[in-house]
Amino acid sequence: MDLRRTAAIVGVYEHPTRYAPDKSEQLIIAESIIGALNDAGLEKKDVDALFVAAMPPGITGYGMCDYLNIYPRWVDSTNVGGGSFEFHLSHALTAIAAGRINCAVIAYGSTARSGGVAVGTGGAARWGQARLSPVPDSFEDIYGTTTVGLYAMVAQRHMYEYGTKPEQLAEIAVAMRYHASMNPHAMYRDPITVEDVLSSRIISSPLHLLDCCVISDGGGAVVVASPSLARSTRKKPVWILGVGEGIAHQGGGWRDLLEMAAYQSAPQAFAMAGVTHQDIDMCMIYDSFTITVLLTLENLGFCKRGEGGDFVSGGRLRIDGDLPTNTDGGGLSSNHPGMRGIFLLIEATRQLRGDYAGTPRQTHARRNRAEPPYIALCHGTGGALGSRHSGGTVILARD
Amino acid sequence: MTTQQYKKLLPAISGETRPYWEACKRGELLIQKCQKCGKYQFYPRGFCSHCWANEPPQWVKASGKGKVYTFTVTYQNRSPGYAEEVPYVLALVELEEGVRMFTNILECKPEDVRIGMPVEVVFRKVTDQVTIPYFRPAKA
Ligand SMILES: [Zn+2]
Questions:
Q1: What CATH number does domain B63-140 carry, 1.10.287, 2.40.50, 2.30.40, 3.30.420?
Q2: What's the pLDDT tens digit per position in A260-299?
Q3: Residue at A139 is within a domain
Q4: pTM of the prediction?
Q5: Is A133 within the bounds of a domain?
């Protein structure tokens, strides 16, 4: 069954807040959904499916239906960490193609910052509970694992195997900050240099403070519609060409730490979309840390294993580079409210629709430097590279 | 050392993992080997995750020797017990038998830890009920 262009993103909304002590997660989700429906020119009555994920302890799908006061025919609260929303898009595509639903909203909201959650360095006690499960927590968390540490261990191994340099990781942070400097909502907008990254304090070696994403509040929503509905919405549809899902874990104690879930999800998405890496005009890559971007690009197949350091150098990921990536400033500089996957879909859609046409934020499609991009790739990562994580690849295209 | 003094997280011990923690108290590091497919696995489970055999895997004593597969020197962890100990080394050690386990590298300056460095297991009794395996540079 050819699933290409059987569903489209027809509305998006990124909540502008980065600090919202007066709002609940649910309210941020509701405001985001309303914003995305306005963007699409659709209304509450059009929605027949809800996809939602949240940070621990977590709101439920049915609880969110209660709060929103809706009775959808499809509810999906798949939670595979920060990249849950790429999985949601994959599931929404399948449900729409099967004729089960017509209009889905995918939404996220978080008060990670105003709630004082030390997402990256809080260790096992970061959600306030410090009771471990017999497996696997009791074999890991007792040693003082942190989210940063679990990514840092992968960076260390990559440096050992391939001679990757801290300067190369720093280039990623510098490019994201350059993009954030053009985004009025971004949390950090002052340009930085490689030197700035290398002279920031080490959080967990070899990762510096500026190798790590920010902690913000925020949220967003995406409206996904069937082709018939998509033709009647306000904005140009952004079609789903391909999706893929993958999980990587310890494999009983044997896993190659440098092989990500993306290695499994990307071939599925490329095969479904019927496109090659050369066709991709821009990327939105989950950037919890600089190493996440470097390793994801390798595992997606944009360069060979071990060559990520060279690949990200020389400004390739900049908006004016060969492969514009994270054009909103990413999690490293714009926002990272606990989970960030929803923003990958939102920014890719805005770029493909040409929402930034005539502004410095317009990426330049490889095939036509004067027009908005044709094809974008999003890859969401959830969990931790050093222990277990998920990966969802999505390929989107405009008409 | 009593529980009151030990502020770090303690493992939760279940029927599935009790033999491992009991062995730690005797100074032995146990891993599991499948009776059907012959593969080792870590962390321990009540079944073989490699082949899903009907028979549970056997507990076998590991040599306790291995190499640092990767590590990070942690400078920030807000959890009680760990916050006071930074900088500390969080590592994945590859045992001689092939499986990898999380641990800390002790009895060594953090800046001296290297990937590939030979290490050996060392046990620390942290409460009356719990002894935890760590690693240190192997004695020549
Ligand atoms: Zn087996």
A1: 2.40.50
A2: 999 999 999 999 999 999 999 999 999 999 999 999 999 9
A3: no
A4: 0.97
A5: no
Give a yes or no: residue A291 inside a domain: yes
Kindly provide the ipTM of the predicted complex, given to two decimals: 0.97
A34: tokens are 């309303």
Question: Vertex B123, ends B117 and B129: CA angle to 5°?
Answer: 150
A256 alpha carbon to ligand 1 midpoint, in Å?
19
The pLDDT value given to residue A203: 98
Contact B11 A205 (CB under 8 A): no
Residues in chain B predicted with pLDDT less than 70, given as ranges, are 1-4
CATH code, domain carrying A157: 3.40.47.10
Nearest-Cα residue of chain A relative to residue B12: A134
Tell me the CA–centroid distance for residue B43 and ligand 1, in Å: 14
Which amino acid makes up residue B16? E
Q: Do B17 and A135 touch (CB under 8 A)?
A: yes
B9/A142 CB distance under 8 A = yes
CA distance to A212, A339, B100, per residue, from A109 (Å) = 21, 9, 37
**Scanning the structure block, which residue is given the tokens 């390739």?**
A316
Tokens of A338: 């606990």
* Continuous segment of H or E residues that includes residue B50: none
Residues forming CATH 2.40.50 domain(s) in chain B: 63-140
The pLDDT tens digits of the residues spanning A88-110 come to 999 999 999 999 999 999 999 99
Number of domains making up chain A: 1
Task: List all residues 6 or more positions away from A273 whose beta carbon is below 8 Å from its beta carbon.
Answer: A4, A241, A242, A395, A397
Domain hosting residue A387, numbered range: 8-117+145-398
**A258 part of a folded domain:** yes
Rg, Å, chain A Cα set = 19
